[in-house]
Amino acid sequence: MNENISLRFLGGAGTVTGSKYLLRAFDKNILIDCGLFQGLKNLRLINWEPFSVNPASIDLVLLTHGHLDHVGYLPRLAKEGFGREIWGTAPTLEIAKVILEDSAKIQEEEAEHANKFGYSKHKKALPLYDLNDVKKTTPLFTSQPPNQWLTISDSIQVRFQNNGHIIGATFIEIKAGEKIIVFSGDIGRINDPLLYPPKLPQEADVLIIESTYGDRIHPTDSEEQLAQTINGSSGTILIPSFAVERTQSLMFLLWKLRKRKAIQDIPVYMDSPMGRNVLEIFHHHPYWHKLSRNECTEMCDEIIRVRTHEETLRLATDKKPKIIIAGSGMATGGRILTYFEHYLENETCTILLVGYQADGTRGRQLLEGAKEIKLRGKRYPVKATVRNINGLSAHADQKELLHWLSKLGKAPDHIFITHGEPLASQTLREKVKETYNWNAQIPNFNEVVEL
Asked: Is 203 exposed, middle or buried (0-12, 13-18, 19+ CB in 10 A)?
């Protein structure tokens, strides 16, 4: 048996997207997360390249949580030959199914639209994967309980530990021989309105930690900022939102603000089929969140859930003031684009950004003051007001990331800082050194490290 242990960074290195880490240990190839690259074109093109490792050689996939940048490449991996089990918590796998079906549908629609209107550079635009590929992937899902050591082989065990962020999210601990290797996944907030605070790792010889907000501290008055933005608007407020956790958090906060009459009395709509499905997952898994069944029901009754494209089109052409929460969170696809087509040029409209906006996305362009946005082959002037509230993020900020390390009994032999843009990762590395006197590395894409 080969007892050498190595780690290969197949994504999430130098960027916040495409998380994939291949652990080779004791003759096993274990892939931790299998995310889609999003944002900049040079990153998105990586999705189309042959996978760096033969997919058929991978023995197991472990998922930290269900977001697209951590699970979105799974159908492509299966399409190219992977056919083993995919482990995650029950909510993670339910969310992954919803997200993959939505991703495949959006890709199919975008390819069809590009072919119909002739704006693809390819003779025939094709999706990266389709719904049939997703149907072949989800039977590989195997639900695993949290907080228990599970056996992969005689020499390898794994444990999933609650990590906040979104429902079902975990960090992953792997015992490989004498070493404990910890993959942070995405770390949640200490005072999340819906989710319990992340657990903290107690021991790690090798630690891989995300750094999405490694260079900043979230404001503490985000709920007040939300109320001020709503009350300061005279028209429709569009909120591009991630369907998992962010949409539900926004619904909860808006429901609370309406109950205490802290915001103007205008209707609130949630237009995200995926967001509706995730609400059902919240109902199925009360162990994973703080909401009581009554609160969940009352919140859902208070906010109007849009169900059909016809309703979306009616809302988009209705100029009465309202709040619309719609996917996707970085405006890369989904129903928010239909609203953008009707409202980007409307000077009374407010576009409220409430989550991380990756480089190269429409959300990032708006955040940086773009004067026009390209949608479905056409350019639209931006006359709407754009606002941003950082404190509503589901990602830990710098202070919370450092706190997440606080229970480790000794310095890990290796710390790798991933899932961040260069400045965020570099800043977190400096803060880890300053706070704990621990050295950390920022790995490169496709780098292999012997452990």
From this structure: middle
CATH number for position 250: 3.40.50.10890
pLDDT digits (tens, 9 = 90+) for 185-237: 999 999 998 999 999 999 999 999 999 999 999 998 889 999 999 999 999 99
Q: Quick: pLDDT tens for 307-354.
A: 898 999 999 999 899 999 998 889 988 899 999 999 999 999 999 999
Amino acid in the structure at residue 37: F
Residues 333 and 410 in one domain: no
CB 19 within 8 A of CB 72: no
Tokens, residue 253: 């906060």
Q: Are 14 and 165 in contact (CB under 8 A)?
A: no
What range does the domain containing 430 cover? 5-215+394-450
CB-based contact 354:392 (threshold 8 Å): yes
Q: Closest Cα partner for 19 from 80, 71, 74, 93?
A: 71
Global confidence as pTM: 0.89
- H or E element in which residue 430 lies: helix 422-436
Of 50, 57, 71, residue with least CA distance to 23? 57
Q: Say if residue 292 is in the same domain as residue 322.
A: yes
Instruction: Give how many domains the chain has, as a whole number.
Output: 2
CATH of the domain at 54: 3.60.15.10
Residue 386, strand partner residues: 351
